[in-house]
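Input (structure):
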């Protein structure tokens, strides 16, 4: 028995949104940020820039792109803003890409 891929009837708007999300993910630092935020972890800009060893301004720039394209969401708690994956399924996409890159 052959497994046929599932087909989705996406509108042009949904296809544009999906393409925008994939374009946003398609950067080494953004993939690293998503890997860091996997497993429902929420982190501040400071935590992310320290863990990845990149400038805070660079971190903020990439977080803004990911948030703008619907990859990340954020919530404020006092002075801190916590970033997290907006959709858990996104970590599966990045895991798949990581596995393909290691082959």
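Output (sequence):
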């Amino acid at each position: 028995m052959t497994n046929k891929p599932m087909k989705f009837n996406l509108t042009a708007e949904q296809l544009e949104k999906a393409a925008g999300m994939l374009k946003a993910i398609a950067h080494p630092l953004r993939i690293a940020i998503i890997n860091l935020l996997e497993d429902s972890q929420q982190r501040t800009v400071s935590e992310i820039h320290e863990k990845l060893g990149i400038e805070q301004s660079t971190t903020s720039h990439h977080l803004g792109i990911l948030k703008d394209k619907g990859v990340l969401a954020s919530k404020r708690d006092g002075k801190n803003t916590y970033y997290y994956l907006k959709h858990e399924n996104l970590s599966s996409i990045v895991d798949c890409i990581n596995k393909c890159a290691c082959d």
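Notes: The two ends are 27 Å apart (CA to CA). Helices lie at 12-25, 28-36, 45-52, 56-68, 89-102.
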